[in-house]
Amino acid sequence: MWRRHQSRGRLWVAAALAGLALAAKSAIADPLWTEIPSGQAPRKAESLPDFVDLAARLSPAVVNVSTTQKSLPKVGDSPEGGDNSGDDFGQPFENEDPSHPQSLGSGFIINKDGFILTNEHVVEDGQAIQVTLQDGREFKARVIGRDDKTDIALIKIDAAGQLPIAPLGDSDGLRVGAWVIAIGNPFGFDHSVTAGIVSAKGRFIPGNYDDYIQTDASINPGNSGGPLIDQRGTVVGVNSAIYTRTGSSMGIGFAVPVNLIKEELPQLRSRGSVVRGWLGVYIQPVTEAQARAAGMSAPHGALVEQMIDNSPARTAGLRPGDIIVEFDQHEIRDSQELPLMVGGVPIGHSAMLTVIRDRTARRIPIVIGVSHEEQLASADAGGVPRPSLGLTVEKIDKALARQLDLDETAGVIVAEVDPGGPGAAAGLRPHDIIMEVDRRPVKNLDGWRRALDRAAGEKITLLLVKRDRGTIFITLRERG
């Protein structure tokens, strides 16, 4: 009897083992995960790069840029409006004398004639610009050209003798994960060197023209305008901005790609500004629902909201609701790629758009015109009522700062938010403190009004908001 049970037990074990073997074979055929074969040799670990030679070679070409700016107008009869001892988006910081504020940033020499690249916001409104080299020499600089769309300025010093030069590289060839270093003057500590990797490429910040390089190399206020350098010792970007909730580096920094800057440099030198191609449309990203309605397999491209009168887009016959999916046979994955593509071709260029209209792809020829954004913004600010933002803001005086336990009086405070307005839709709340509009510091009510006037032609405005003890970015879409 026992033997019979034992025999059955053996048969059951054999069947179970056979089942496990079949299951294992099935798992191998359709694995749930992937493994490296045990016999395969692991990739040899590489040692960390040595940045000593790079720092020694490039640091002399990095300069300190300080700017005496125009005095800020006071609001009413109160001296409040304060200073901003440091900001949260790569902007310059100022000293404690509001009558002669000092903008402090970085820059780097790009040729033997003394041309220097820096950020436009570093030299904005500067009455006097001083450049200090690593060897202690000081020079007065003048602005040759500036472009607020990319936040780049070309300035020049007249210096006798040899100047150290930082060569420009190829940002298109830069790979995510590659080692980079940043050199600049964070918080006034000149020629500080920080290292990190390229965290991402093609990052878009609302209200900007760039597709930024993202890096975790430490970038702080004062690094603005300094170089981002690859392992070959070439400049691949100009450090421009940080994302932070504390006012200092949190490991997310942004640099303007040097290849984009190289396209602008001839115009900055010859005419002092950059003239770009223009379609004359307001666009927005394509949502998944809009893509399905248009018969697209996945959302991509740029949805046309409206056309500007007498623009190339209106002349070409574009319509609201069109989805532009290609520009000159180049696919548009993100809506913000379109302005970069259009801006990179010559004025008068005959381009071909591929648009989705009524679930059908159409090819529409268009002649690229000259951008009229500044004129349109000026006209809107001067003669056309600005659409309501649904906000009431007030100045921050010393009493209010004490009440709210604030360290400074810079910015404007949100007093009321219209529940049905754009501000509420964007997530603004009462007691939020608006520190910047489109990367430009807001010191007081007058600065807030000027910032809104500058952004009058834009459909999207980027706000830097202090909330509690941190800062956040809020994208504000206007109605109208």
**Record field, number of beta strands:** 26
Q: Let me know the average pLDDT.
A: 78
Rough outline: globular
Helix content: 10-25%
Task: Describe this structure as you would to a colleague.
- This protein is α+β, with helices and mostly antiparallel strands and 480 residues long.
- The chain is built from eleven helices and 26 strands.
- A six-stranded antiparallel β-barrel has the order 1-2-3-6-5-4.
- Mean pLDDT is 78; it is low at 1-5, 71-100 and 375-387.
Quick structural summary:
This protein is of the alpha+beta class. 21% of the residues lie in helices and 32% in strands.
Topology summary:
Layout: H1 2-29, H2 52-58, E1 62-69, E2 102-109, E3 115-118, H3 120-123, E4 126-132, E5 138-147, E6 152-157, E7 179-184, E8 192-203, E9 212-215, E10 227-229, E11 235-242, E12 253-257, H4 258-270, E13 277-278, E14 281-285, H5 288-293, E15 302-307, H6 312-316, E16 323-327, E17 330-331, H7 337-343, E18 350-357, E19 360-367, E20 369-370, H8 373-383, E21 391-395, H9 398-403, E22 412-417, H10 422-426, E23 433-437, E24 440-441, H11 445-454, E25 460-467, E26 470-477
Antiparallel strand pairs: 1-2, 1-4, 2-3, 3-6, 4-5, 5-6, 7-8, 7-10, 8-9, 9-12, 10-11, 11-12, 13-20, 14-15, 15-16, 16-17, 16-18, 18-19, 21-22, 22-23, 23-24, 23-25, 25-26
